[in-house]
C-alpha cells in the first residue's frame, strides 16, 4: 500500500510481469555491486602503487574495449537470445572480479591483472549494453515501456546514491576484498534472476558467417538512415554528451573550488543530479504514456542545458543544488522517452544493432570532449566554459526540434 502511494499504480505495473520483475531485481542488485566496486577499485590501484595517470589509463582501456566490439555486439545480440548474452557476460565479469579477490587475498595481485580485468570488462560491456536495453520489449508489453524504463532509470540512480555509501562501509569494515567480493556475488545474483526468466522466443534466424555479420550491420545502418528521428538524435547526442560529460567531470570540481568555496559542495552537486533523476523517473513512471514524444524529449534536453547556464551564474550553493537537480531530472526525461521510443518503433530483430550504433555515437567523441572542455577551462575560466557548454546544449536541442521527423514524433 505504501509503495503504491509513493510510486503510483502505473509505475509499478511492469513489475506485475514476472520476467521483467526478475530482470529488474537482478540488474538493480548488479548495479549496486558495480557502484560498490567503483569505490574500491581506485583505492586498490593506489594500494598496488599505481598513480593518477594509471587510473586514467585503466579507464581508457575499459572504454577502448567497449568501443572496439560494440558494433559486433549489436549484431550478435540480434542473432542469439539476449538473455544468454546477459548470462554469459555477467558470469565472465563475476569470475573476473572473483579472480581479483582471490589474487588480492593470496598476495599475488599486480597492476597487470587489473589492466587485463578492465580491458575484458570493456569487451564484455560491448555485448552487455545493447543486450540489456534491447531485451526490455521482449519481457514487457509495449504500453508499459515508459514505466519499465523509468524503473530502470530509478534503479540506476538508486544504485548511484546507495552504492558509494555501501562501498565505503564495506571497505571500512572488511577491506577492499570484502567490497569486491560483494560485487562478485551481485553478478551471481543477477545471473540467478536471468535464469529464472522466461522470454518469449524470437523468430529463428540463419546461422551467420563473417559476410552475414557485415550484411546485418549494413542493414542496421540503413534502418537508422531511413528513420530521421533516429539518425538525427544519435548525431546530436554525440555532441550533447561531450558538453555534459565535460561539464560534470571537468567543470563541476572547478566551479566548487573557485565559486562555491566549500569542497563538500561537489558531493552535494552530484547527489543533487542523482536526486533530480530519481524524482523525474518516479514522475515519468506515474504518467505512463507520453504524447508528443519528440517535443517532450528535446524539451528535457533544452531544460538541462538551461540548468547548466544557470550553474555558470549561480550566486549561492543552494541555487547550484537546485539547478543540478533540474539538470539530472531533465536528462532522465529525455533518456526514458528515448529508450521507450526506440524499443517501440524499431523492429525487435534489429534493436541490438540500433542500440550499438546509438551507444557508439554517445561514446565516440567523449575523449576529445574532455580535452576540449579542459582547454576551455584553462584559457577562458570556469564560468565562460559552463556558459559555452550550456548554450551549446540548448542550441543543439533547438536544432533537433527544427527537424520534422523529431518535432512531429508522437
Automatic annotation (TrEMBL):
GO terms for cellular component: plasma membrane. This is Enterobactin exporter EntS. Its main location: membrane. The gene is entS. InterPro entries: Bacilysin_exporter_BacE_put, MFS, MFS_dom, MFS_trans_sf. It comes from the Bacteria. Residues 19-407 form the Major facilitator superfamily (MFS) profile domain. One of its GO terms (molecular function) is transmembrane transporter activity. Gene3D superfamilies: MFS general substrate transporter like domains. Keywords: Cell membrane, Membrane, Transmembrane, Transmembrane helix. It is found in: Cell membrane. The chain crosses the membrane at residues 21-46, 58-77, 84-109, 176-197, 229-253, 265-283, 295-313, 319-338, 359-378, 384-406. It is a multi-pass membrane protein. Pfam families: MFS_1.
